């Protein structure tokens, strides 16, 4: 599959992310204080890095589960059709649940997942999203806690992909499409 050439400009450093993750975890720990067990649900694949860092800062008894939802495939445009590719392994009825998402863009993914999980009657259900792009919202849905509000840029890294690439970048970067010659030059400069 051929793709338009692009370079990645850093937007949020690994250090800035780590500091914010610590703050979010503190807020979550206070919110759910006294819970018998918090079920932390990561939405695959994008949230795998964020959930790994976040759960290690949450000072509560925690169970980790995953749900795989996909709407973008290899495109930069939402298909607006959310597919559940893998369901939770555990029951959440009567439980305290925290959904962990990497980014809320149009809102279709989070909206779909929140409705699905609410229908299973959890005791409490909250959402923590690392990134929020409010300017792109098409469905009225909001995370309880958000790491960073960002402008309308296509971002990658820290779990987030562009056509399944760049999830392993330790920072959040924005994709900038370029002419082919510029990509080559950027690579020679050591850029990703
Ligand atoms: C991305 C991202 C969010 C969702 C946000 O997932 O990880 O889950 O899109 O977009 P939305 O608010 O417009 O629905 P994607 O469908 O690319 O799957 P992935 O997590 O496996 O990359
Ligand atoms: Mn996702
Ligand atoms: Mg994706």
TrEMBL record:
It is found in: Cytoplasm. Its main location: cytoplasm. Pathway: Purine metabolism; IMP biosynthesis via salvage pathway; IMP from hypoxanthine: step 1/1. It is an enzyme of class 2 (transferase). GO terms for molecular function: glycosyltransferase activity. It catalyses: GMP + diphosphate = guanine + 5-phospho-alpha-D-ribose 1-diphosphate; IMP + diphosphate = hypoxanthine + 5-phospho-alpha-D-ribose 1-diphosphate. This is Hypoxanthine phosphoribosyltransferase. It comes from Acidimangrovimonas pyrenivorans.
């Amino acid at each position: 599959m051929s793709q338009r050439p692009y370079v990645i400009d850093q937007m949020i450093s690994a250090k800035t992310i780590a500091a914010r993750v610590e703050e979010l975890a503190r807020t979550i720990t206070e919110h759910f204080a006294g819970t018998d067990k918090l079920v932390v649900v990561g939405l695959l694949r994008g949230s795998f890095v964020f959930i790994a860092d976040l759960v290690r800062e949450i000072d509560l008894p925690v169970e980790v589960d995953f749900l795989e939802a996909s709407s973008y495939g290899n495109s930069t445009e939402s298909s607006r059709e959310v597919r559940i590719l893998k369901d939770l392994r555990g029951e959440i009825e009567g439980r305290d649940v925290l959904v962990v998402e990497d980014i809320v863009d149009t809102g279709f993914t989070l909206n779909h997942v929140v409705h699905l999980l609410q229908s299973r009657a959890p005791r409490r259900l909250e959402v923590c999203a690392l990134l929020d792009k409010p300017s792109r919202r098409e469905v009225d849905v909001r995370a309880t806690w958000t790491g960073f509000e960002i402008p309308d840029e296509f971002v990658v890294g820290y779990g987030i992909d562009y056509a399944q690439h760049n999830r392993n970048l330790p920072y959040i970067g924005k994709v900038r499409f370029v002419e082919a010659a510029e990509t080559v030059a950027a690579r020679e400069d050591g850029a990703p």
